[in-house]
Amino acid sequence: QIPVPVLQISAAQHPVKAGLSDAFMILNPSPDVPESRRRTIYEYHRVELDTSRITNLSAVEFTPLPTCLQHQSCEMCVSSELTFNCSWCHVLQRYL
């Protein structure tokens, strides 16, 4: 049960985010405190959900898009219609 409708939650108190994202993190030494590290998170992809559709007893299903990982041969790789550049390595018999 959702105690408060999502659209009524104030962003000033706690920003509401619903979805899925992918990122990587880098730990950098902090110039102010030498023994500590500063985390920098670089997000490179995000899928956001329409928060007005989040209700009691609702569920979300994410279906992944195809990637180079699915290719099992050179022919499958080079004939792929993916929007990014993957290539097949004959020596390793796998995608790059």
UniProtKB/TrEMBL annotation:
Membrane association type: Single-pass type I membrane protein
GO cellular component, one term: membrane
Family annotation (InterPro entries): Plexin_repeat, PLXDC
Localization per Swiss-Prot or TrEMBL: Membrane
Pfam families xrefs: PSI (PF01437)
Source organism superkingdom: Eukaryota
Keywords noted in UniProt: Glycoprotein, Membrane, Signal, Transmembrane, Transmembrane helix
PANTHER family in the record: PLEXIN DOMAIN-CONTAINING PROTEIN 1, TUMOR ENDOTHELIAL MARKER 7 RELATED
Family classification: Belongs to the plexin family.
Protein name: PLDX1 protein
